[in-house]
Known about the structure:
This protein is an alpha+beta fold. The protein is about 35% helix and about 20% strand.
Amino acid sequence: MTTIRTLLRTDHDAWLPLWRGYLEFYEAELSDEQTTLTWNRLIDPQFPIHGALAVDDDGAAVGIVHWLTHAATWSAQPYCYLEDLFVAPGVRGAGAGRALIAHVAEWADAHGSPKVYWLTQETNTTARALYDRVATHTGYVHYQIGLGS
Length: 149
């Protein structure tokens, strides 16, 4: 059975391979400095980015999720953005992804957020099969403009 818990300062060595696996999956490269900054933000209770770890029955880390909230123009309460979700390839399909999403939804509900939302690649069919079961596909298309640094 998968257990979801808040990231602890002592989880760095368990979190890092999952973070790197996530970046590799999305063919993204971040500097070691950015990874360190991300980790420090996740474990800083004063910083508004949150993280949780999925662990299996043996206590091995098998997944991560990171989220944040932000003000919204269509709601008095902040929306919750699930920014990063990754489950180790060898345990996909066993419920860790669903449990991580549920953890964020429960946290967001407890903190008054009216919704949780996230993005994924159109080609991420494995994850999208789960997302179609636990959420509503809104039909929106994502655009972005890269700026400066």
